[in-house]
Design brief:
- By secondary structure, the protein is α/β, with parallel strands linked by helices.
- It contains 11 helices and 17 strands.
- A hairpin with an 8-residue loop joins strand 16 and strand 17.
- Helix 1 runs parallel beside helix 10 and helix 2 packs parallel to helix 6.
- The structure holds flavin-adenine dinucleotide (FAD).
- Flavin-adenine dinucleotide (FAD) binds next to helix 2, strand 13 and helix 7.
- It comes from Daphnia magna.
- Belongs to the GMC oxidoreductase family.
- Keywords: Membrane, Transmembrane, Transmembrane helix.
């Protein structure tokens, strides 16, 4: 049967609508665990259902305790699951806290009002529901500098190896069950074999995943990505090492990005999907209250016994915790809740007439990482752009197979840059290069989400792929 182009378009539109409806139904009909009114008392209250809150809540619920998760935002939008879509959530009234720095005197000159935008997720899943999905281990020297027992680089490396099933040489079971896995999850985690001394990014390493791992990773394949290949070649040409995977080293290297994407479904793999969602289905003792914003902790003498929050209608309410309250409301809001509860330095609390319960350096030592975008002109059509992304074939490939441009984060390569120290100590990382594979339209998206002034001149040196 031959269809006219109009009929073809109709069939395509109908198929796409059905598939979108199916995705919508899948996420919105599986919300068991969400509640409208909490009980008066729980064993544990987890404040913030972001990256860390989702894991904490799932682990606590597995121990049979009564757990309340209280989240200021609502459920994430369905499109947050499509990996490439993340940037559009930044700046959203509904899903981003839209934090801005105060105008800077000595920085942010290219930004409107000299103010940097600090996006932060406001939804179940938190920032993990809108981030760029790059999986990179932190710098060992950072962990060691904290000097907190159990958080040193050696212990963290072992824990992270377990979480992400990094195996080299042979496929092997974990020696110890990673404590991050949920009950009932497989202890045996299989990963593709990576040859011990392999330097090629193409070998065996496409979808670096475990069937039931807490962290699912999709590795970008350099043989399929000319830009990534050029990036790695450039690293090599500059004398840097090019590694197979995140080697957890302070020496710096260029590598293909591994992104937290469920490669089978082509979906964002946040801790909402890995931990909270399965726990909500499994445990009736886990309650999740959304659109409710915690304002402060409630004290009885010198003990915190509960929380005060504003419900969805702006009414002040309280819930008690028999055992503990866990603050996982993100860098800024956790600090704010603590300070509003009287925990913080006097020079901050006293001018606000907040009675001091504990004089602690809460809110100090804040560190930011700056991004400096460089848009590069390409002489071949090898980047992603909106025309390629919206091609019907991409929709079909994504909806039916979970593959294609929509199933990628757009991040293809990362490099850590280090500087040698003369005192013989290990080199110190000082920067990270990230290869974003995006086309011209995304330059506009990027400048708007990053608050960059229009007059900042990206043209003609820093522009994007020539079309046609
Ligand atoms: C745009 C963007 C891109 C990023 N890209 C990457 C990346 O590629 N790789 C990477 O490793 N990291 C990335 N990050 C950082 C990473 O996502 C965060 O470090 C991580 O998600 C922080 O987790 P968290 O649990 O501390 O906070 P969040 O995940 O931010 O969770 C905090 C939660 O608490 C809720 N909350 C706040 N205040 C209250 C309140 N008063 N009452 C109730 N609930 C409250 C918030 O709504 C939110 O859901 C990115 C972050 C952003 C914003």
């Amino acid at each position: 049967m031959k269809l006219s182009w109009k009929q073809g378009l109709g069939v395509w539109a109908a198929t796409t609508s059905c598939l979108l409806l199916a995705v919508w139904l899948r996420y919105y009909l599986t919300d068991n665990g969400f509640i409208k009114e909490p009980n008066q008392t729980y064993d544990y209250i987890v404040v913030g259902a972001g990256t860390s809150g989702c894991v904490l809540a799932a682990k606590l619920a597995a121990s049979n305790s009564k757990v309340l998760v209280i989240e200021a935002g609502g459920e994430p939008p369905w499109y947050s699951w499509i990996p490439i879509v993340a940037p559009i959530l930044q700046g959203s009234e509904q899903y981003d806290w839209r934090f801005r720095t105060v105008p800077q005197k000595f920085a942010a000159g290219a930004l409107h009002g000299n103010q940097a935008f600090w996006p932060q997720g406001k939804m179940v899943g938190g920032s993990g529901q809108m981030n760029f999905l790059i999986h990179a281990t932190g710098s060992p020297s950072d962990y060691d500098s904290w000097k907190v027992p159990g958080w040193d680089s050696h212990t963290m490396k072992t824990a992270l190896d377990g979480l992400t099933c990094w195996t080299k040489g042979i496929v092997k079971p974990f020696v110890a069950r990673p404590s991050f896995l949920l009950d009932g999850e497989s202890e045996m985690c299989r990963a593709p074999v990576l040859a011990e001394n392999s330097t090629s990014c193409s070998e065996n390493a496409q979808h670096f995943q475990c069937p039931s791992a807490a962290v699912k990773l999709q590795r970008v394949n350099a043989t399929e990505k000319p830009l990534l290949k050029a990036f790695l070649d450039a690293g090599r040409a500059c004398g840097h090492s090019v590694s197979e995977m995140d080697r957890w080293s302070d020496t710096g290297s260029f590598m293909a990005s591994h992104n937290t994407i469920d490669g089978k479904a082509g979906q964002r793999w946040s801790t909402y999907s890995s931990h909270l969602m399965p726990a909500m289905k499994r445990y009736s003792n886990l309650h999740v209250l959304t659109k409710s914003s915690v304002t402060k902790l409630v004290w009885r003498r010198n003990k915190v016994i509960g929380i005060q929050y504003l419900d969805a209608d702006g009414r002040i309410k309280h819930v008690k915790a028999g055992k503990e309250i866990l603050l996982s409301a993100g860098t800024i809001k956790t600090t704010q809740i603590l300070q509003q509860s009287g925990i913080g330095p006097p020079h901050v609390l006293e001018p606000l007439d907040i009675p001091i319960k504990a004089d602690l350096p809460v809110g100090e030592n804040l560190q930011d990482h700056l991004q400096v975008p460089l848009f590069v002109e390409l002489n071949a059509s090898v980047s992603l752009n909106i025309v390629k992304m919206l091609h019907p074939r991409q929709f079909w490939n994504y909806m039916v197979h979970g593959k294609g441009a929509l199933a990628t984060s757009g991040i293809e390569g990362i490099a850590t840059l280090t500087k040698k120290r003369e005192d013989g100590k290990p080199s110190e990382p000082y920067g990270m290069l990230i290869l974003f594979n995006m086309g011209s339209i995304n330059a506009d998206v990027y400048t708007s989400v990053a608050n960059i002034k229009k007059e900042v001149n990206f043209d003609p040196t820093f522009m994007v792929e020539k079309q046609g």
